Amino acid sequence: MFSLTRRLLFLLPPEVAHDFSMATLDGAQKLGLMRLAANPVKAPVQLLGLTFQNRVGLAAGLDKNADHIGGLAQLGFGFLEVGTVTPKPQPGNDRPRLFRIPERQALINRMGFNNKGVDHLVEQLATKPRPSIPIGINIGKNRNTSNEEALGDYLHCLEALYEAADYITVNLSSPNTPGLRALQEGQALQNLVAGLMQKRTAMAEKLGRCVPLLVKIAPDIDPTPLTELADTLLEAGVDGIIATNTTLDRQGVAGCKHAEEVGGLSGQPLTEKSTDIVRKLRAHIGDNCVLIAAGGIASAKDALDKVNAGADLVQIYTGLIYRGPSVVSESALALANMPCESGHSSSK
Ligand SMILES: Cc1cc2nc3c(=O)[nH]c(=O)nc-3n(C[C@H](O)[C@H](O)[C@H](O)COP(=O)(O)O)c2cc1C
Fold it and tell me: Which residues cross the membrane (predicted)?
């Protein structure tokens, strides 16, 4: 059934197909059809002080403005991550900015944090019925904000979204905001996470609830900078790391149409690369931090590989476009049935 739907959707330009799918999902949810079709895997996991319905979440970027959380929650996810949201609304890059590479089950995007801004997202979460699964919010900086002033943008988002979020992800790894990935390094990273952790502590004291803070990283990091990055995050006391965002590497799509488009590559060609980052991170940090893996999960096996490499939870974006919602339930079921001695569970 999904393969026919996909064939029809793939006749449309990628962003049009996305908007059409989201509108259909919203319509089906309003009519109550999603609840009839839904058969979520219930395999609760306690992490970060939250209960995840299962280990499979929606990765950031598909619902940047939390406009579709009701329908998305009924696709069987154990949690959703919305955003990336920035303080002010911004249009993102010019279209076309999203490209399919079907022969590799991959996408290249250079969306550029197109979003309706933090006030809209706060309003959405305040006024819409809240799904019963955790909602993480992924935050970023506006394109016109310099890296020197980036902390101000992240603090603005953290404060505005604190009460609405089950967890907050600091996105330092989009390749489509010029210079953003430089914030993953050295003193810039130290200053940024120190400032954010200080604000988190102040908000937790004020509101009596400690919202977990995670950092999302790129896959294009060599081993030494990766361990330095992890050390900085652990020393600052962040609660978790999401690995990974999209890659700039084009090896996996060489020779394919669109392979040379500027942007981040996701899907199958990213699978091994991001699993490798997860494995290296887990080996370095031990049990001290929650690890959420994203990158090329398109089957139960891919999800199992990520958890065997050290992930506590996984997230999917591109696999959903190519495989449809069945990839969510298949993966969640496989992870729920994993023998206890394999896989990983952080102490957080
Ligand atoms: C079209 C598109 C838009 C994305 N937007 C964001 C974003 O706004 N913030 C973010 O942290 N990641 C974003 N991502 C990255 C995904 O969350 C995910 O980390 C990455 O695509 C790897 O997972 P996948 O192979 O399952 O897609 C985006 C990915 C795609 C394909």
Answer: none
